[in-house]
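User: ok so my PI wants both of these folded by tonight, can you help

Assistant: No problem, let's get them done. Here's the first:
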Amino acid sequence: MERAGGGPRAYIGSYTSGGGRGITVADVDPATGALTALADVDTVVNPSWLALAPDTGVLYAVSETEPGRAAAFRPTAGGLAPLGAAVEVGGVNPTHLSVAGRRLLTANYVSGSVSSLPLATDGGLAGPPAVLTHRGSGPDADRQEGPHAHQVLPDPSGRWVLTVDLGTDSVRVCALDTGTGELRVRAETVLRAGSGPRHLAFHPDGEVVYVLHELEPLLTVCQWDPASGRLEPLAEVDVDPDPGPNGVRAHPSVVSVSSDGRFVRAAVRGRNTIVTLSLADGAEKPRLTGVVECGGVWPRALVPDPSGRRLYVANEWSGDVTWFDVDPLSGQPRRAGALEVPAAACVVFA
């Protein structure tokens, strides 16, 4: 599906309950990376996570509400056109979504479940959803009284779906039935108790996974076997190396791997930092090489642009998207500009 018009675009999701405008459509200057806001689409409440279908270009958004919903949009020259009404996902407060074949998957934080919705031929959403409910809890009584699915993502091979659960300190490996949309758990990898895994990313080689934890500032390096669907923890790396005297707790939010496989980065809320780790010693051996300020407060998303030359950070509490030029040798980001986007939560590029 092609939108009318020219250059690259960014879509920015925000919390409408926190003063956000919904989904902001912005032009991207290819030379400088600067963002220019074009339009706001406020038809969805709390579109805090967005994803683009790689084959159709349709944009999908969660509605982080109770009951949780998801919505689909067709990019247009002027912004976005809804593909029907938002559809209930069968869970509460979805925080993440992704496309797996002809299904849209959502991770529903409050209900601790993962949903699978069929996609119509035009990319719109249909129902009803197939729902997989997680079971279990963790030692943190305030945050882990039950399951809290935070991310759901197909692996690069397309054979498996991984679900990250902050409440049960685990990552589940699931098989997706392409006919019914049902997700079946094949294995569960248990990580450090009380660490609260929140978000993972694959190395481009498809054989290493990085799991970022929210309740402890840790990055777990895992070996991934796409043939068997086996996820095996190998090592842990501290992403809050210099806590300082102020007593502010670190809350890591998102992990990102550079497209050339040379660097892995994490955004850390509370510290308001971007942590860069070099993979020069091997994908399984991240080594911390730099920490910079994120350009705002409470970084919720950390996204490289398609060229790999820049990073974009959605800073929720300061209400902006800040972009950074990335040094091609050291991988260190340097702040280059910012766009005001109240309650910014997510950025994707088309």
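One down. Here's the second:
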Amino acid sequence: MSSREDEALAQAAVTALTGQLALAPKPGLPDPRDLDARVTRRDHCALRWSAKALVPGLAAMAAAARRTGEPTPGLRTELGAIGRCTEHSVGLAGGGHRGATWTLGLLVAAAALNPRAVATDIAATAKGIARHTDKRAPRKPSHGSSVSAKYGAAGARGEARAGFPHVRRALDALAAARAAGATEGEARLDALLTVMSTLQDTELLYAAGPLGLRHVQAGARGILEAGGTSTEAGAAALVAFDEDLHARAWSPRGSAGLLAGALFLDSLPVTVSSRARAAA
């Protein structure tokens, strides 16, 4: 049974995910703008709705971690089972968020194991969980695992086993942009672009191949090198990049999920403690 602290962690994670969804323009990704393409609006609304279905599963992951007390192979197996059930529930609610479920699930569990830890320590604990093998995981290869094997990309599992380096880079980008005077939305978009500029996104590799991945990475770097989204040149480049990726139907979903992980860790000192107090 989950506690108030577990529920607070789960709610914080979903708030981070919906905060990522609210950003615009996000290159190649659904966002809340009133675009001409109706399918994009529908996708965005469905993603916001289905994100709520993550709460029970994430709370159960936090409870499992708190009960286990350390990043054991048994905890990894239990988290995998909860994650698969959660993905089924999310699918019934509209789908999406598979990469975010993996990222947020591990980080929520790690935060439950280390309630007073800072973001880097939580990422390190998540690494300790992810290094174990889920012996009950389905053997059927996914797009991500197939692409990882073909191109040698780290993929979602490699990102976790490395301690979420792109989540940590996103946190650094958030801090730098805020310190430079960017708005919160601009800081978050800069963090997203920071992830996109170097991430070996397996979904992109599957859809667009290595040349497509390099195109996306170069486009994200170009915006950052223009001064980021808070500058006139960077904002114009962002709009052009977004139009380009939508025209190509290339969607860097892996970067979006990792940004959600960064926003979750960024929120912990305030969000979890305040919600736990409010529930008491």
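Residues 34-42, 270-280 have pLDDT under 50 and may be disordered. The CA atoms of residues 5 and 276 lie 6 Å apart. Good luck tonight!
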